Description:
By secondary structure, this protein is an alpha/beta fold. It has helices spanning 12-16, 51-68, 70-75, 122-129; strands at residues 7-8, 25-36, 43-50, 80-83, 104-107, 134-135, 146-148, 150-151. The chain has four helices and eight strands, in the order E-H-E-E-H-H-E-E-H-E-E-E.
Amino acid sequence: MDKIDPIRYSELITILGEPGANVLMVKRKFPFPLKLNGDKYQMCYSFYGNGLIADAVIDAFEEILDIFGLEFIMENNLDWYGGCFNYRPSRGSTRISVHSWGMAVDYLPQMGQMGKPSIIPYHIVQAFKNRGFQWGGDWNKPDGMHFSGVIE
């Protein structure tokens, strides 16, 4: 099992450099196709994000596929992907988002909306948490879709 060692937010620039200019960005093939924000016409076949989390992200998706199977995933909308790399401020803040370094994944945005209790299945959450990801569903203001390689 690939595991990550989460970085503290305060150390991001020191370790990874300025946001958006990271040379550690990589592309990896997902084990199953994902709908970008649930749009069946915008399929996502590859992860694009930081190399420090890439293998663990793909490993988590492989476990999810092993547990549920492709047919169940597709029939139950467990194939919605919100993305990884996105240079922007954090929602509701002026702070730069960890997505700007490609260090977080938004998965199942329809089940883990910011500020609402998450209904993301337990085994999916555990697939990421067991690999060292911080889960936004554990925060005081939940963001269940957010799986981060950064201690925020």
